[in-house]
Structures
1.
Amino acid sequence: GQQLNQSPQSMFIQEGEDVSMNCTSSSIFNTWLWYKQDPGEGPVLLIALYKAGELTSNGRLTAQFGITRKDSFLNISASIPSDVGIYFCAGQPNAGNNRKLIWGLGTSLAVNP
Amino acid sequence: GAGVSQTPSNKVTEKGKYVELRCDPISGHTALYWYRQSLGQGPEFLIYFQGTGAADDSGLPNDRFFAVRPEGSVSTLKIQRTERGDSAVYLCASSDGAGAYTGELFFGEGSRLTVL
């Protein structure tokens, strides 16, 4: 099925560094969501974006809904060991129908203490 | 429990066998979703229930897959004549009424299915 293009595929950083990852789609999306998945767990929602240009923060996390509506990025500032995990972007091209999300392949983050 | 509960957590079966995976959503959540996640992939939508009815089953890969939610709470995903390609983690999620619009889904830990 359709999936989003997410990059980078993996990142290895030092504790305290900032991290940036992004997601692109060939079609316009009306919602962008960022989820985090820890090993053996289900994904957990971090940030949701519903409007083109929207910039939203959640603690050390900041995400933006691209103006073109075809991309989104997630930044993590001052990384800590518990940031380790797989980050997924997810979205929905149909307004008001976030039941059937389309997901990226994930960005695996490793933090070296 | 407070979260979405899925059983079994692990299931190993032989090719051709029948499998049932169970999901107990968060109490009061009207919407329930099944996703499938293969190794190194993001979740892939299978089916969505609003109450007892399957509102969207367009993600079910073929007629070997079927899901029910008879009382609007617990759901069972049923896979007949399992194939090796069915091996994956099957994730269940639930949401309240707003979740279908916000995209805020609450996931369980998943049921890992291995077909030998």
2.
Amino acid sequence: EDKVVQSPLSLVVHEGDTVTLNCSYEVTNFRSLLWYKQEKKAPTFLFMLTSSGIEKKSGRLSSILDKKELFSILNITATQTGDSAIYLCAVEVSGGSNYKLTFGKGTLLTVNP
Amino acid sequence: EPEVTQTPSHQVTQMGQEVILRCVPISNHLYFYWYRQILGQKVEFLVSFYNNEISEKSEIFDDQFSVERPDGSNFTLKIRSTKLEDSAMYFCASSRTFWGQGRGYTFGSGTRLTVV
């Protein structure tokens, strides 16, 4: 059975701190790993990673994938209260002619002023 | 930025009733999905849909569930004879290709289904 494990499950920090969120996976037919931010409802896309060792950056957020060790990290520097959300890691796996996402439980990040 | 639209945002139904959850995917997307998230649990894949037929479905997606694209824009999930354990947030998603190219899969805001 495909498995995606995120850690920590929750994290409380102060504004300005740097955080690292972890995602490890054990799946068959890996294609990519995606990070989403879930605030009120809809998961919103952050990154898609397909190759090892290539860091993707968007402002204060960055992410990298290690396909040998089967994990990814999401870094957020200089955190702000608006970063408070659930961060979801999902692995895209192939099911024959189709792909689907297998999600982790998410990391609840709370950034206090 | 294009959005996936879901209606209603919240639906309360009595056990045993049928519900239809509606989604309008992004207009140039060809692949459509339903996921659900039971409170406090992971987001789980239900079904994928392409070219007016189901591409893949999970074990959760049994005969109680069906999907349809009735008019070329809407994509619906029907749940017959709802059970208490069907209470969850149901997310619709779409993608341009059968893999999540570029920006991956776009999710709607979800429908919170409460079965009482």
